[in-house]
Amino acid sequence: MSVIRQSDPKAWTAVDDTEYEAYCKERGIDPEEYTTMELLCIAAARQTYDFSFIFAGTGLPMIGCMMAQHTYAPNALIIMEAGILDPKLLEVPISVSEARGGYMCSTLSNMADTFGTFAQRGFCTFGMLGGAECDKYGNLNSTAMGGYYSKSARDDGKTGPAVRFAGSGGANNIASYADVGLAMMVQEKRRFPEVNEYVTSCTGSRGPLGSDEDRYHKGLFRGSGTTIVSDLCIFRSSPETGELQMAEIYPGVEEQLVRDNVSWELQTAKDFKPFAAPAYEEIKIARMVCDPNRIYLGRKTKRELAAEK
Amino acid sequence: MAEATIPTFMRGKDKIMSLSDAVKTFIKPGTCICPGGFSYTKKPFALAREVIRQDIGNLFITMNGGASICEFWCAAGLVKLLDTTYIGLEGIQPVAYSVRRSIQDGTVDVEDYSNYGFGLRTVAGRYGWPFAPLMSEFGTSFMDHDTFGKMGLRGKKADGSWIHPSIAPARAAVIEDPFDGWGLRPHAFEGGDATSNQTNFLDQVRESTAYTGNKGVKCILVPPILPEVTIILAQRVGEKGTTRIEGIWGPDNEQAISAKNCIVQAEKIVTEEELRAQPYSNTIAMQYIDAIVQVPYGGFPGQVPYYYDYDWDFWRAYTQINRKDKAEVNKYIRDWVMEDEWTFLATRPGDGYPTITGTKGLERLFELRADALYGYRPGLARPL
């Protein structure tokens, strides 16, 4: 697929440098140094493309899609599952249903209608998600670990799953209908198993491409691969096999660290390249336009907290 | 026909009830209840609090659209069964802690659907359809997990009646699309389709034998939701039940119409004429509403578009509290709701958690009023 991106920072949402420097000073943060959450937000925005329909899930995608709209994809339309089409986001929403997310949108309807009128009908080109677990073929688990079933439905004597996550929400549907998927995740080995014990959403090929286990042979008629934006690197589905491969690596991250934090023999993509460090202009927009309160950007990953110690 | 009695939904003005009476009349232990709204928006919290005050337990919650009410009910130990899609509190707490804990420790049994799967169930419920067609969930664990089935809650009893009137005999079914994928987009129009999606792998899908053993395009059928009671919040409701929801509808219209009975919590009860002057803006017809309860600001600590914003500081504080010991959280929530809603609204806003202005009660509520141009309160302080 050929894609258009607005790569000229002059065309992005304008923010005054002096104001930005003052903001950073007040908060005691370096204007050019970025945190992991800022990196995730910027890396996700770089994957989007202009004139696309970005169907954004809750959590990190809220800020990822907002960043995209103020930089690389100014004409992209955002869809939020509670009923929102094409809002102009002034303040980052904390929910896919809140009034901040609906500001100046084209239409406002309901959940079934959003998935029907936009996703099923054919206007969900770019799916942006979060997930708890991701396997070799880009399947996300956002439901449970340690056995899905709750007490009365299981027979191993346990009271329920070891860890219960939020569940699909709209993730399964966005992953099923989007031409391309993207998931933003924190990378730990246990969260990147070879095969997920529970599959909530198929963002990638599901199984080896061309086999009975791929997404099409299970009945899904759309989707052509996924991009996983982790806090160490960017994975993409191989167009030949469907397997996730290391496509870009962040500055200062050793390849071995990426390999140590997945549970399969990780291949490197043919077009592998280093990821260019987030630029001043990008960090500025992430902070000043998208999330000045640092609701998402102020969060720290386990890896960051460990590094601080 | 037998001798005519006036159906309850035709009662007119006597649909207007006190909060306490509405809950007492329609919600009993074990009732299958469907809470409306979505996460922090337009959640009928006053009704939810009254359920806690009346200590109505063993509830069966069928819901879509965020777990905030379910979180409070799980914290109070009132939930037994959960038929849902998502148990998070979105940007504030990725998984609602009391719900998570209840599922992990065996207090609550849960059945999962995707949002569109559940959304289509509400559409089927709204239209009185036997099922609705779904083209996602294929290839995932939804297809081979069925909690209620494993619990023996599906199907019929020996006497031919349903084991549970609000649980379908199957979680879902797969059929072969009799139209061979003809209707799916992008479609093979002369010169291609004008829709935005580019990918269409129907040729490969037609080769698939998954789920039925036969080649061809498959379609999942999901059953309607048939809750006993739906509770919703609407900004304005006419005295006979004509309802107008402003801002995001979320799943409310479908869920209200799917249910046997619906209680609407109104910011304001108005004359029918006020709403019927612009009937195209009304979202639920009068006969689906069985009880109307007027509770201005009753959506606190949530947001009601064009009326007031959510209380960010409350949620930040609450999501620390709900991680404490289970008994302590239970005590907290039962204490938090106080003896009645008016005392609650005059006391609890701004009480027991830090806010920038330090205002409390009605003054705090006043501070959260929305700006009509935005539908929320621009610049609301939301410190992490």
Structure summarized in a few sentences:
The complex is a heterodimer of chains A (309) and B (384). Chain A has 309 residues and is of the alpha/beta class.
Word description of this protein:
The complex is a heterodimer of chains A (309) and B (384). Chain A has 309 residues and is of the alpha/beta class. Chain A has a single domain (9-308), classed as Glutaconate Coenzyme A-transferase, CATH 3.40.1080.10. Chain A contains eight helices and 15 strands. Chain A has helices spanning 17-27, 36-47, 60-70, 111-120, 171-177, 255-260, 280-290, 302-308; strands at 53-56, 77-80, 84-85, 107-108, 126-130, 133-134, 139-141, 144-145, 163-164, 180-184, 201-202, 226-229, 233-237, 244-249, 267-274. In chain A, strands 4-3-2-1-5-10-12-13-14-15 form a ten-stranded mixed beta sheet, with helices on both faces. Chain A has a three-stranded antiparallel beta sheet with strand order 6-7-11. In chain A, strands 8-9 form a two-stranded antiparallel sheet. In chain A, strand 2 (77-80) and strand 3 (84-85) form a beta hairpin. In chain A, helix 3 (60-70) packs across helix 7 (280-290). The model of chain A has no long low-confidence stretch (mean pLDDT 95). Chain B is of the alpha/beta class and 384 residues long. Chain B has a single domain (10-129, 224-384), classed as Glutaconate Coenzyme A-transferase. Chain B has 13 helices and eleven strands. In chain B, the strands form two sheets. In chain B, strands 1, 2, 3, 4, 8, 9, 10 and 11 form an eight-stranded mixed beta sheet that branches. Chain B has a three-stranded antiparallel beta sheet with strand order 5-7-6, with helices on one face. In chain B, helix 5 packs across helix 8 (252-258). The longest helix of chain B has 13 residues, at 115-127. Chain B is globular. Chains A and B meet through helix 4, strand 9, helix 5 and strand 11 of A and helix 4, strand 4, helix 5, helix 6 and helix 7 of B.
